[in-house]
Amino acid sequence: KAHELSKLLQFTCGSDSRAAQAVMEKLSNLGNREFSHLQADDFTKSHLPVKSQLKKSVETYKQFVLLCLHILNERKEPEVLQAVSRALPVVICGCHGNSKQLATLKYYLKNIQPPHLPDRVILDMDSAFLMAALQFLEQTFPSPIPGLELDLKLSFVPLDTPDQTARLVSVLENIPSLRVLNLSSTQLAPSSLQPLVR
Hints:
Layout: H1 6-15, H2 17-34, H3 53-74, H4 78-87, E1 90-95, H5 99-111, E2 120-125, H6 130-140, E3 150-153, H7 162-172, E4 178-182, H8 190-193
Parallel strand pairs: 1-2, 2-3, 3-4
Helix pairs in contact: 1-2, 1-3, 2-3, 2-4, 3-4, 3-5
């Protein structure tokens, strides 16, 4: 029901700060009730049966994450940020060139307090937006975020110049708790991968 009313919820939250906090508190309670059975690793399993209940829950949770980020985009305020952090134990985001979504996620990661960090952040960067992806990573991780558990997928992103590879390596050095790095089909030569092996 929350997804069906997402546009109305976003409009309501954008017009009033207290309304945004109240909506996020309700969504947090809803999320705790509906998604408590999900584990962080469930979001990285690529071979879940198509019709399984778990796969349906994962897809619904992804939409729930987007709704919460949309509300945070409407109200970038500390109280709303805290409510969003309570609602999202895992932040999973397919960053496919959506500038508002990227800006909101950057705000979230730069302003979230260490005690409120999610259990996992999973980023899936789209191949069609290589420069935007690199710029987003550089702006979001100019320095380490202690305690951040990150899964980063850059598959099919054409990292085919030394400069692009160097920029990626520089960013990764600021993510000490990088759990997963998917670089499949990035056109990187084996020698280019050597700086990533620490």
